[in-house]
Amino acid sequence: MLISIGIVFATVAAVFAIYTLMRVLMSRAPNSRTQDLAASVVFRVSALHGLVLALVFASEVVEYNQLSFESASEVNAISDIYFDSMRYGEGTEAIRIAMRAYLDHIPTEEWNSLGRTGDLSGSAWVAWDDAYTAILDLTPASPRQDALRDNMLDKIHAIAENRDMREYQAKTGLNVLFWIAAIVGVVMVSAGYYTFAPTRDNVILLSIFSAYTGFILFTIYAMSNPFSDPAALKPRLFFELRADIAKIE
């Protein structure tokens, strides 16, 4: 919450500082041609600036929702492996032990590690490898067991793919060029408003523009790292599955 307020107020302060500086450096009573040119430039620059923010914002929303979908898919794969191992019969306890261990690491240790450094949990990889090895060691004795083993192999590979994508998303943050473009856009748009006198109405309109721009910048910043606050995606489904499994143990 404090970060959002800080970014919004910083943006408002920057806009008015640039506006005031331009009023000091430039003519406070420009002729009509200058006013028309300034309005034209501000319109074009603000349109491009808005487009940049909109595209990046949309991209972050898509990636955020994709991570949520991938997490749900991973939880479904874990559930399938766990309960298919029970359907398989004897000799599958090692699979369930590994899956329980995996669920213990993901929503706590791994989520925290991804938020801090973007790295996956080594302990979770060990649990995943234990489950994979146990599935490979199964010797099906019937078509039913053969089908269950094949499904578990498919699901264990799906889990690995989802984890790799999760690490990629954690380590692929916004390029510094975006922040440069965003800041330059705010500066240029703010500078272009110098032709408008600081009347009450104009100040209110500038405040609305700067506050909303700051809010959008905060939203983009928050969603650029979905594993840490202020907009962290909570691994709720992993906790729920672990709780469901604990009830039948």
TrEMBL record:
The chain crosses the membrane at residues 6-25, 37-58, 176-196, 203-223. Keywords: Membrane, Transmembrane, Transmembrane helix. The keyword Membrane applies. The keyword Transmembrane helix applies. This is DUF4239 domain-containing protein.
